[in-house]
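Appendix C: a fully annotated inverse folding record. The material below is reproduced so that readers can follow the format used throughout the book. The structure is listed first as tokens, followed by the designed sequence.
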């Protein structure tokens, strides 16, 4: 750095002050060694992006041993908004400014310089130097959006004309950096997104959306531009993008069903249904579709085409597009027509019609329920009443047959609904009367209006309802789950088997445990029989169920057809508790050079309900960076570490290396355990003797004082010096050479760096090496064994430009040589 010191027009020449009446002149003050101050960046924004919310100010003090006082001011427009002051007892090498002034308010936005002023105690002239300019950016950018044309007009291929959207934005003090433009529909869904860097601020949009569609007519979309300046401040600029509407169709479209319903299984009525179609605007049709939709389950069958194929009739046989029989129930056929942008889409439907699959249910009762003798060789008359029902169709006719013990039909009755009763007097077809000492049975059948026939058989004397054929079951698909919202095993699924699904009238699934009883219930009727259910671990009130073992129970009722039945799942686990554990070390102090060259780390893990699955281990260096990573699959639980990172770099001497292990159980729960690997003072054999890889000693800034530091650092210094003295006493008969090292601030300025090395770093590193020598002598070592040297920044482990790892350069190295 070049400097010219001027006073009253006099340059570097000696300034002589002639005092009238005095015999001698007072010696002139001389210029001190160079001082410097600089900002570590072009600017920052307190409310901006991470990493740009503050700025570091680096400081170099010339002749620091003669400083009386110093002052650092952050100046904008001739006004100092932030200042720091001090004396020789505190000479910070760097300061961080968060943008706040001396009153703790955010300072005015603008350009700033950092000014360093120094007063010396003796022969040196005062010094005032300034840094280059940097920017404090506190106001978000402003701007507006411009659209050309101002709205979209729909066309068959999308829109008539693309739209150019221009982003006009600026910042008072910063350059604009980048922007993102998002277009949303009226529901807030993202339609299209663009982004670019300044100065490219325009984009042409053809109206297409992310899902390969186009903007909808008569809809206003929202454009939101997010702009960002170079220091991370952002702003949103919003505008509307309207789309004009399209007209209604000129003529009416029609679809009609040929009947009120049908049954594909009928033996006496049509097994399909026809639909008549009328296209009111044939010349404008782009595409059409007919969908047959179930009232609850939705679309089951569809046909489609374009203007080249406009059918007048379609026929449906009750089969879905997948080739299976559609569910029973109420349906409608829906005709939808796309006219492109000529007319709005058309949607018309038939009246509701029925797909009837299930035969009517049939029940018969007899009174009296047994064959009772009438005292004259016959029986008392038995009155039979038939009861039938269908969920989808009206009942049409019925029949009742009486069977003897051999299954032969001995008499028959027929009738039309709603007349549904008959009295049997015991007379048999062909003559004769029923024998009251023998058993009889009946077969009743009811036919609905679409040809389905239901049947019921039973003994004349009513007995208990039969049990379900084909066992019911409920099965948990996994042994457990962890509903902790981590998207891993958050639900558990159950498969359900109803035995005879067609006979089910109601079902219920209950989930509970021995400690909580029933905590969640699902239920339904015979119209909805899910093949599976999923549980998210929540109780009926929405709260999370406690961890533990649970069982699911399926209960099924069959109305008057079969006896109720139930089944239980095997027990399963609900587990949201992360695993716990610990980390064991094979040695309390790791010494990879002198002692064991590896360290075994053992992971102990446990979970009250789940099996342990896997783990991963991160070992961090003293600077907080990941140094080495290991992973394992349980039951493997040990790591053998050689003290090196993945690149072969060895641990630092006498440092603590934090260890973090994340343990995962079989259901995805993750627990974290921590420990520390303490590293011993390391001694390495070299050609001339030994080199001690000593740990860092923390000194007060710009001094060799290791006592007047923060209490925790002072305590660490004393412990490390004690350990170092103990280690050196094991090497009696060796000379001890202590070499001090330091970090250079002006590593990127060759001239200033050379001056810093000569004036500051060499003397400082020598003084610190001497301080370590004195500390070791105090701890019982012979002073005659020592030699000290300071090399400043001449022999660095890592570049001084490496802000993350250059802490390794602040060190004292020790060498042992045979006397």
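Designed amino acids, in order:
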């Amino acid at each position: 750095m070049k400097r010219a010191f001027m006073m009253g027009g006099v340059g570097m020449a000696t300034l002589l002050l002639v005092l009238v009446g005095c015999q001698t002149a007072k010696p002139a003050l001389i210029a001190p060694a160079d001082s410097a101050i600089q900002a570590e960046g072009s600017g920052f924004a307190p409310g901006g992006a991470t990493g740009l919310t503050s700025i570091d100010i680096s400081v170099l003090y010339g002749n620091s041993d003669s400083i009386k006082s110093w002052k650092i001011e952050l100046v904008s427009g001739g006004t100092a908004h932030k200042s720091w002051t001090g004396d020789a007892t505190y000479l910070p090498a760097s300061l961080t400014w968060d943008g706040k002034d001396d009153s703790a308010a955010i300072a005015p936005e603008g350009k700033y310089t950092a000014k360093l002023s120094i007063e010396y105690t003796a022969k040196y002239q005062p010094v005032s130097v300034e840094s280059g300019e940097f920017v404090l950016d506190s106001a978000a950018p402003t701007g507006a959006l411009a659209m050309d044309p101002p709205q979209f007009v729909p066309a068959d291929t999308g829109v008539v004309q693309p739209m150019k959207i221009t982003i006009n934005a600026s910042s008072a003090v910063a350059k604009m950096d980048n922007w993102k433009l998002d277009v949303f529909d009226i529901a807030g869904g993202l339609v299209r997104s663009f982004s670019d860097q300044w100065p490219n601020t325009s984009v042409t949009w053809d109206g297409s959306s992310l899902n390969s569609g186009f903007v909808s007519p008569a809809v206003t979309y929202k454009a939101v531009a997010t702009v960002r300046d170079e220091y991370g401040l952002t702003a949103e600029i919003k505008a509307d993008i309207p789309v004009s509407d399209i007209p209604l169709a000129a003529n009416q479209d029609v679809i009609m069903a040929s009947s009120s319903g049908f049954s594909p299984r009928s033996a006496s009525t049509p097994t399909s249904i026809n639909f008549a179609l009328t296209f009111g605007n044939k010349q404008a049709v782009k595409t059409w579709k007919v969908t047959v939709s179930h009232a609850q389950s939705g679309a089951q069958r569809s046909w489609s085409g374009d203007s080249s194929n406009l059918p007048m009739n379609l026929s449906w046989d009750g089969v879905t597009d997948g080739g299976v029989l559609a569910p029973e129930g109420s349906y409608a056929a829906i005709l939808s027509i796309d006219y492109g942008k000529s007319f709005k889409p058309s949607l018309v439907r038939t009246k509701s019609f029925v797909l009837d699959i299930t035969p009517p249910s049939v029940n018969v009762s007899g009174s009296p329920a047994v064959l009772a003798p009438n005292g004259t060789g016959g029986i008392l008359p038995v009155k039979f009443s038939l009861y039938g029902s269908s969920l989808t169709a009206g009942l049409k006719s019925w029949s009742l047959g009486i069977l003897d013990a051999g299954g032969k039909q001995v008499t028959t009755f027929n009738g039309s609904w709603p007349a549904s009763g008959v009295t049997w007097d015991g007379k048999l077809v062909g003559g004769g009367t029923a024998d009251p000492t023998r058993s009889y049975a009946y077969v009743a059948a009811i036919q609905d209006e679409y040809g389905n026939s239901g049947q019921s058989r039973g003994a004349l004397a009513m007995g208990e309802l039969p049990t379900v054929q084909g066992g019911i079951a409920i099965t948990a698909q996994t042994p457990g789950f962890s509903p902790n919202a981590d998207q891993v095993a958050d639900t558990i699924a159950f498969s359900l088997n109803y035995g005879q699904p067609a006979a089910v009238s109601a079902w219920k699934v209950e989930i509970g445990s021995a400690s909580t009883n029933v905590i969640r219930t699902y239920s339904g009727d015979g119209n909805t029989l899910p093949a599976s259910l999923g549980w998210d671990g929540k109780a009926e009130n929405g709260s999370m169920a406690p961890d533990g073992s649970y069982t699911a129970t399926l209960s099924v009722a069959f109305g008057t057809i079969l006896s109720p039945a139930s089944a239980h799942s095997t027990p399963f686990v609900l587990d949201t508790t992360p695993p716990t554990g610990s980390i064991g070390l094979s040695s309390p102090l790791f010494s990879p050079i002198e002692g064991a060259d590896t360290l075994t780390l053992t992971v102990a893990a446990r979970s009250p309900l789940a099996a342990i699955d896997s783990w991963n281990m991160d070992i961090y260096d003293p600077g907080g960076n990941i140094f080495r990573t290991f992973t394992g699959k349980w039951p493997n639980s040990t790591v053998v570490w050689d003290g090196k990172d993945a690149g072969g770099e060895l641990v630092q001497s006498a440092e603590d290396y934090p260890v973090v292990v994340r343990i995962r159980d079989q259901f995805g729960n993750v627990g974290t355990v921590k420990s520390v690997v303490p590293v011993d003072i390391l001694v390495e054999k070299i050609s001339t003797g030994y080199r001690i890889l000593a740990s860092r000693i923390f000194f007060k800034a710009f001094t060799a004082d290791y006592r007047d530091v923060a209490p925790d650092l002072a305590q660490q210094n004393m412990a490390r010096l004690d350990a170092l003295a103990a280690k050196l006493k094991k090497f009696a008969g060796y000379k001890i050479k202590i070499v001090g090292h330091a970090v250079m601030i002006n590593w990127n300025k060759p001239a200033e760096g050379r001056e810093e090395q000569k004036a500051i770093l060499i003397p400082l590193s020598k003084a610190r090496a001497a301080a370590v020598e004195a500390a070791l002598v105090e701890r019982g070592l012979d002073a005659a064994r020592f030699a000290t040297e300071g090399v400043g920044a001449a022999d660095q482990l890592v570049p001084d430009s490496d802000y993350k790892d250059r802490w390794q350069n602040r060190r004292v190295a020790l060498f042992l040589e045979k006397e």
